[in-house]
Amino acid sequence: IVSDLPAPRQSPAPEIRPLSVMGIGSWPRPRWLLQSLFERLEGRLSEEHFQQTASDAVRLAVDAQLRVGVDVVVDGEQRRDNYASFVGNILDNCQLIPLTDLLPLVEDPDKFQMEMQSLDVPADRVRHPAVCGKLGRSRSLCLPEFQFVRSLTELPVKIALPGPYLLSRTMWMECISDKAYSSREELSVDIVSVLQQEIQDLLEAGVSLVQLDEPILTEVVFAGARNTRSFMCGALSERGETAQELSFALELINSLVSGFPRDRLAVHICRGNWTPDESLALSGDYRPLLPLLQKIAVGTFFLEFATPRAGALDVLRELPDDVRVGVGLVNPKAQEVESLELVLERARAACAIIGADRLLLNPDCGFATFADNPVASAQVAQSKLAVLAQAASVLRDSCK
Q: pLDDT by residue (tens digit) across 194-236?
């Protein structure tokens, strides 16, 4: 996969210092925003009125972060229906359709019906990004998000994008996308292209960090015999053999980030974030993904470690020594707020392995990956970030 873009451009951005505190991405949406989101998706609310409502919600999300003392701000993904499928409303020749609408189009409706019943969220509430022609990008996916947050704060801003492997698995649906593309690999070339254009514009605008979300990498190595469509994206295309999929994911990510400054690019990997029931999410440490993590050409990884499902911190020793690691220190799915002592214990353990200069502090994942299915309330989310900020203050004092 070779890019035909000109040499990447970038503008200076506020630096992200060691031990910085930040959210992963999503923030619980107010009820009135959810109502506006659904009305907009159903065509009953104009884009202008929706954006005005969403801007009010972003103000609340950013204010909550600033109050507790984060070092890097996110907009809480308030304008998105979820962390990945929102692109279906923006990219050319792509649209959001209810997953149930695919039933008449698939070759085996009975099998697809069973797959929908096993999804992580109810199928009638999942909107899928359906590709109906050659992908293009006539307007930005996230630049307006950044521009509005920048009007609210001068702190560093992080913007999350769905990663190219994630989009290759969600957008490739044989019953629809094969009308425009001969294979998932051909579709992925255009996915990389539109994401490159987006990253270029974000860096030129002054975004401090662009985060690529690739949670389904854990589905590749841990799902085993589980239904391949059953993960937090709602629906996934069939995957091939594990080594082949990981190689394909590495090719896509490194093709996407080639030429961009590593220190302003990150990858986030988790094991599912759609339910507070830990028993329903994937389990396993990061060791099967180490060959991939050792070769991905980004400067930061955001990895979950606050849940026992993620395994021990020792795996951090195997990561390249020139990457920063945002270590998950609080669990967004747990309703109780972790104590300062527990967060400090986890942070110091990570510090002992990778050093304070490479450590960032964050939750395991977002607080509301799916707009209408948050795993925490805004109050809990704010309290968990507050504990992280307190821990960072203690650590900075002890490292002086």
A: 999 999 999 999 999 999 999 999 999 987 644 444 455 555 6
Residue 118 Rama label (left phi>0; alpha psi -120 to 50; beta): alpha
- For the chain, what is the mean pLDDT? 90
Dihedral angle, C-alpha 140, 146, 148, 151, nearest 10 °: -140
Torsion of CA 176, 179, 183, 188, to 10 degrees: -80
What confidence tens digit (pLDDT) does each residue in 83-101 have?
999 999 899 999 888 777 7
Question: Closest by alpha carbon to 138, among 198, 203, 51?
Answer: 198
Residue 25, amino acid:
G
In angstroms, the CA 62 to CA 227 distance is 38
157: tokens are 């801003």
Q: Do the bridges between strand 92-98 and strand 127-136 make them parallel or antiparallel, or are there none, so unpaired?
A: antiparallel
| Residues constituting the chain | 400
Residue 275 φ/ψ, nearest 5 degrees: -145, 145
What is the amino acid identity at position 216?
Answer: I
From the list 17, 13, 59, the residue with the least C-alpha distance to 205 is 13
Distance CA 300, CA 267 (A): 7
Question: How far apart are alpha carbons 400 and 103 in whole angstroms?
Answer: 60
Token pair recorded at residue 366: 């977002």
How far is residue 107's CA from residue 103's CA, in Å, rounded to a whole number?
A: 9
